[in-house]
Amino acid sequence: MVISNCVINLAADKARVLAEAFRVLRPGGRFGVSDIVADPGLDPGERIEAERGLGCSASTLTAEEYRRHLLAAGFTGATITRHHQAAPGLHSAVVQAARPA
Q1: 32, 70, 86, 101 - which has most CB atoms within 10 Å?
Q2: pTM over 0.85
């Protein structure tokens, strides 16, 4: 299992981070993280301002962008469940996926 708590949104190269997570998992392994996701429709300036207000996020992805990165890395069954609003335009989320068996 790969787990993380609110760190992937800080990575400059999220595609590389997710590809590495996929690489280290055994077939059938699971990926489960909590992270921050941006609401769809925020323009880049609004996203940066929301991240600045939160203080622990940078270059957040929307749930759909996150899902696309997971699928591109090879993960299946990707789900992203938004939870409470962390800042205007940003939500905490639980991200889950699996490496195929």
Answers
A1: 70
A2: yes
